Sequence to fold (270 residues):
Amino acid sequence: MPDFRPSTDLDMHYAVDDFTDPWRRPETVLMLHGNAESGLAWYAWVPALARQYRVVRPDMRGFGRSSAMPRDYKWTLDRLIEDFCLLMDHLGIDRFHLVGAKIGGTVARAFAARRPERVKTLTVVGTPPPLRAGAAEAVPQIVEMFETHGVEHWARQNMANRLGGAFPPEGFEWWCKFMGRTAASTQLGFMGTIACADIRADLPRIACPTLVITTEESGLASVAETRAWQQQIAGSELIVLPGNSYHVAATHAEPSVAATLDFIGRNGGQ
Fold:
């Protein structure tokens, strides 16, 4: 995995997967992972997606093999968006398809609204409402949990809701340990800022073709609640999959990537 330095405080790690035919000039898909994850979270998507497109999977600032952020780091959505824009500039990619899961979908929605010249299509998978009720109020308790028990303990407390009732126990353990490797200092700052971000004003500004994927009983929001914000994005589409997970990109990888490929293909992807 190569790295790139978009700012003096960040070494950003990323992967590029491209298994397209060598005579083609494929378009690019930029994939934004969720909280306490890294680009590795997209492992199940790469085989199908990278056969048709060049896939760029960065580790977000603070996560994975990118530089951890100090507890007092001043997190903003605009800084995260700028990191990704600078990475794509570094790779010589002007416009791209954008895919985000969970909190990566929050960043991705703001990205599409604030940098419309860069985004061809937007797909968000298992992402929270534009303002998650109660998230800010829960931050002090979560911070205490991080400080007392660590990130893996926090992950275990909510993993059943993330992965739903049908995910295998071995997978549950893998995700707990995977997320538990995140630096506590990153999480302490991230939870009270990006995880509580209010992007309600961004939704009507999203002009690119947009796909929203959720499950019937997601712990993040009901289908009706998801449809309410999805319909604020002009011309957007909603797909509801069976199940009760909200980490849909992990639990429903195959139907989600199939829907994403179809959506991109119908909206100008080559």
Notes: Residues 77 and 107 are 6 Å apart (CA to CA). The mean pLDDT is 95. The chain has ten helices and eight strands.
